[in-house]
Amino acid sequence: MTIEGVNEPVAVYSRPRPSPRLETIRMVEDFIREWSGHYKRRALWEHLPKKMMYQTYKEIIEYLLASNKIAIDAEGHVGWIFDCNLYEKYAQRPDLRVR
Predict the structure, then answer these.
(1) Cα–chain-centroid distance for residue 34?
(2) Angle CA(87)–CA(88)–CA(89) in degrees, nearest 5?
(3) How far is the C-alpha of 71 from the C-alpha of 51, rounded, in Å?
(4) pTM of this prediction?
(5) First and final C-alpha spacing in the chain
(6) Distance of CA 10 to the CA centre of its chain
(7) Which residue of 11, 33, 68, 95 sits 20 to 30 Å from the alpha carbon of 47, by its own alpha carbon?
(8) pLDDT for residue 75
(9) Interacting residues of 49 by C-beta distance below 8 A, sequence separation 6+
(10) Residue 44: what are its φ and ψ, rounded to 5°?
(11) Confidence class for position 56, pLDDT limits 50, 70, 90
């Protein structure tokens, strides 16, 4: 039932967020690890060995930031900060296990 002069709400459809494949995420991780601190975010996307949509790239960058694998400095350069050796050291300690 509508009141005269008032429009019905229009259904808003949003597109699903891009879901990058694991091999694509690893490709970006490897590239960042190799060129850590050399490129800014947009330049990094332009120099990737395999092209991808920018929305997918942004999703990967958000994931890597949230998982503390990369950091972006004040100038905008992307750097690899995850240390797998340190992770392995702490992962083997029984007093740090989730129970």
Answers:
(1) 17
(2) 90
(3) 22
(4) 0.73
(5) 55
(6) 32
(7) 68
(8) 93
(9) 27, 31
(10) -60, -45
(11) very high
